[in-house]
Amino acid sequence: MxxxxxxxxxxxxxxxxxxxxxxxxxxxNGIAHKLDLNYLDSEEQSSHHLLLWRKxxxxxxxxxxxxxxxxxxxxxxLLEGEDSFQMVNDLRKYxxxxxxxxxxxxxxxxxxxxxxxxxxxxxxxxxxxxxxxxEQEYFKQKALxxxxxxxxxxxxxxxxxxxxxxxxxYSLSADDxxxxxxxxxxxxxLACLRVDQVDGRFGIYGLVVNPEHRGQGIxxxxxxxxxxxxxTKKPEQIYLxxxxxxxxxxxxxxxxxxxxxxxxxxxxxxxx
Length: 272
Known about the structure:
Radius of gyration: 20 Å
Number of helices: 8
CATH superfamily of the largest domain: Gcn5-related N-acetyltransferase (GNAT)
Structural class: alpha+beta
CATH topology of the largest domain: Aminopeptidase
Shape: globular
Strand content: 35-45%
Distance between the termini: 31 Å
Low-confidence stretches: none
Helix content: 25-40%
CATH architecture of the largest domain: 3-Layer(aba) Sandwich
Largest sheet: 11 strands, mixed
Strand order of the largest sheet: 1-2-3-4-5-11-6-10-9-8-7
CATH class of the largest domain: Alpha Beta
Oligomer: single chain
């Protein structure tokens, strides 16, 4: 069987159409994924694509995105019955060649065949996250207090990044700061989160509350403030993700009107 696998930084019109068709076929089988079609046009250096063709038919695709230095996430789409074992090995070599230290593959928890392949390829289960969407009318019925947000500056980038990543050595770009909302009292940073928008879809990420101020309702107020600001833009959808083991946060999100839609499993590719 004629097979062709390759990486590319930018998809051609033909390749993009093939990825869209593959996505629709997978969704018809009730399988979810984290691929947003708007990213197919991305020209960012942090995004790459892996395509698998058989007899001029696209049967496998992976969208690769580097969200942090030396860390990569890959969303994998694969037709039922296809073997992604070699694609996983391609991703492993891709990371090794670029000295990427961590690679996570994202798989719908219901996609049992792909989960089996992850295990056969010696990928280690890392965690699971629930993808949740906001029931906007439910939220609008609530009377919630708000806070005033601030934006960070480039000279604060490392400090904010350490706060968001619990002390990890990391920094934020100007674009990251533009999407990050800070809640401060005086000079003390109490909480922050990030809001990304793709057309009418708004994603809320990385809600972090200062450990010394947890249990005071700050997280709830900060999140509800962000939602109220998003609602002024008439969004089609507001979503977030939460670790399935973080029961406290999950309950908070449910209380504000977020509903579970799908669970994604994360598998770590062993690179050494």
